[in-house]
Design a protein that fits this description.
The complex is a heterodimer of chains A (about 250) and B (about 325). Chain A is an all-alpha fold and about 250 residues long. Helices cover about 75% and strands about 0% of the residues of chain A. Chain A contains 12 helices and no strands. The longest helix of chain A is centred in the middle third of the chain and has 28 residues. Classes of the chains: A mainly alpha (about 250), B alpha/beta (about 325). The interface between A and B is medium-sized, with 23 and 29 residues.
Chain lengths: ~250, ~325
């Protein structure tokens, strides 16, 4: 399976370079702070909801900075080199003239980046473990929250991959994906200015409102479809964008 | 093996190549000669299927590079001009990756990897990171990946550019040897390379094919004249006039070598040997004869002819 061959190569180069470790350290540091913050203080419940989505008591960071948001900031760093570097090194030319289909290349890189996200999330599993040791959290929201983070990670990675296909400059691709992601992320804030249909649409477009369902322990089919659909759309756009490289 | 038929490529209004046709037979080393920007790389990219042509068709080993792209790609080994390599991978690891991308696996992949490492004398560097290798060794790794899957066709874009002279000699030797196993298309803007390595040469300029022939035929066909170089000590103006008046001299160029010593390059009618009458004249006039040689046009001159001339020389159009 060609996609897996590419995925394995990408994973190896993630862990051969320092980038995977830097991202892991940053992610663990910030989510660790959030986790401590969500539990310190009187009358805190044994829950990861604040870590996931910030809903609940305001705490140190309010509602803006959450585990999901840290993931959003780190996603572009993870994906920025995936295609930009290939195009800068010129290796894209060899890859695209190998007997491999364009979508297999993209799928391989997506799988690799998503695996890093999964490893990142697995490293935080000691938060719920501690909750189980010292309290009695509900299993549902914890499971749904992690599933939501993984879906969210997939979306971030697909946007990042798309941005990485646009330029041969890693910084440009990181900034582009950050801008797209932030726009999507905060677009539901604009919903307050509207009533009726526009409000519903803006709410629906933002991954934040969908993710909050998961953080509350609700696995909604609509949100599932939202994440899978949007991720596929960006992967499709990436394949298309790669195809246009051939014409330039 | 490789059939290129009426291929054109436009980038917007820019015409990269126009109506290019040629073919390469099995086991042939075909040189693709042209100055920078002539459309060599574009043509190579079209053959490898990296860039689709705007018009025309390309078949590699019988497979259309657009319609049956994957089948065609399986038959191609490609070394782009920039020698793209993953600098963070070791040589053996890189070859393993490229091999598995071409559906080699298990013991066969291992055998082939060992074989190309030996063939390109990379044994000592098999576990070195590519980023640490010198340019010449990177070139070898690039060639190694190109022949790894035993492709029927090898496309080499400027394979000797940017490596040191000793390695250039080795690389040429290697490519010549590879010619017995593969059909090779090799692009270059270095002229001697073509006569050294290629059985046939396609000359391209500004996106058009100017000539297709054997290197030696190319030189006889374009040898419209022969040259005599003569170095004389004597009054420049006088010598010049007298030389010009010799029967069969078409044109004369003069360059100063020393005080009162000049080197004259005389372009003569084909088939005439003017060395003797010229020598005689110099002696009779009492000038000093310091050197005399006849020169046929080198491929370099032909190349200049081909690509600086505005109109395509008669009889030099494609077959």
């Amino acid at each position: 399976m060609n996609a897996l061959i590419i995925a394995r190569k990408e994973l190896r180069s993630f862990f051969n370079s320092s980038i995977a470790y830097v991202i892991m350290a940053a992610f663990l540091f910030f989510t660790g702070l959030l986790f401590i913050d969500s539990l310190s203080g009187p009358f805190r419940e044994a829950s990861l909801r604040e870590f996931f989505s910030g809903y609940g008591a305001g705490g140190l960071t309010g509602n803006a900075v959450t585990g999901a948001f840290v993931l959003l900031l780190l996603g572009p760093v993870l994906t920025m080199r995936l295609l930009a570097e290939e195009s800068k090194l010129g290796t894209l030319e060899l890859l695209l003239t190998s007997p491999v289909r364009d979508f297999e290349v993209i799928a391989g890189k997506f799988i690799a980046a998503l695996s890093v996200i999964a490893i990142l999330l697995a490293l935080t599993l000691y938060y719920p473990l501690m909750l189980y040791l010292f309290g009695d959290p509900e299993f549902g929201p914890v499971f749904a929250g992690y599933l939501g983070l993984l879906l969210l990670g997939g979306l971030f990675v697909s946007v990042g991959l798309f941005a990485s296909s646009l330029s041969s400059n890693q910084i440009v691709s990181a900034v582009v994906s950050l801008v797209i992601l932030l726009m999507f992320w905060f677009i539901n804030e604009a919903a307050d200015f509207f009533h009726g249909r526009p409000e519903t649409i803006l709410e629906f477009v933002s991954p934040r409102s969908h993710f909050n369902d998961f953080a509350r322990g609700v696995i909604d089919t609509e949100s599932l479809i939202y994440f899978l659909g949007l991720t596929s759309m960006f992967l499709f756009l990436t394949v298309r964008s790669l195809e246009t490289r051939r014409w330039r | 093996m490789i059939e290129v038929e009426n291929v054109s490529k436009f980038f917007g209004d820019f015409i990269a190549i126009e109506d290019v046709s040629f073919e390469a037979q099995r086991g042939e080393i075909l040189g693709f000669l042209g100055p920078n920007g002539a459309g060599k790389t574009t043509t190579m990219r079209i053959i490898t299927g990296f860039t689709p042509p705007s018009e025309g068709t390309v078949r590699v080993a019988g497979h259309d590079v657009l319609q049956e792209s994957l089948d065609a790609r399986r038959h191609i080994g490609y070394l782009p001009e920039t020698v793209p390599l993953y600098t963070d991978m070791a040589v053996r690891e890189y070859l393993g990756f490229m091999g598995s991308l071409r559906q080699l696996d298990g013991p066969y992949l291992k055998t082939r990897t060992d074989f190309v490492i030996e063939r390109l004398a990379l044994e000592d560097y098999a576990n070195t990171l590519i980023g640490r290798l010198s340019k010449g060794y990177r070139q070898r790794v690039g060639l190694a990946q190109a022949i790894l899957h035993e492709p029927t066709v090898l496309i080499l874009d400027e394979p000797t550019i940017g490596i040191d002279p000793l390695q250039v000699v080795e690389t040429r030797e290697l490519i010549r040897n590879l010619g017995s196993e593969h059909t090779i298309i090799l692009s270059t803007h270095i002229l001697p390379e073509v006569s050294m390595m290629c059985e046939r040469v396609v000359v391209i300029n500004e996106g058009h094919i100017v000539a297709v022939d054997k290197p030696e035929n190319l030189s006889t066909r374009l040898r419209g004249s022969e040259q005599v170089r003569i170095e004389v000590r004597g009054p420049a103006r006088d010598v010049g006039t007298r030389f010009r008046n010799v029967d069969g001299v078409r044109r004369l160029e003069r360059e100063k070598v020393d005080t009162n010593v000049f080197r004259y390059t005389l372009e003569c009618e084909p088939g005439s040997d003017l060395k003797e009458p010229l020598a005689k004249m110099v002696i009779e006039q009492g000038w000093g004869l310091l050197g005399l040689e006849s020169a046929t046009m080198s491929l370099e001159d032909i190349f200049l002819e081909l690509t600086t001339r505005e109109e395509i020389p008669e009889g030099a159009s494609q077959p």
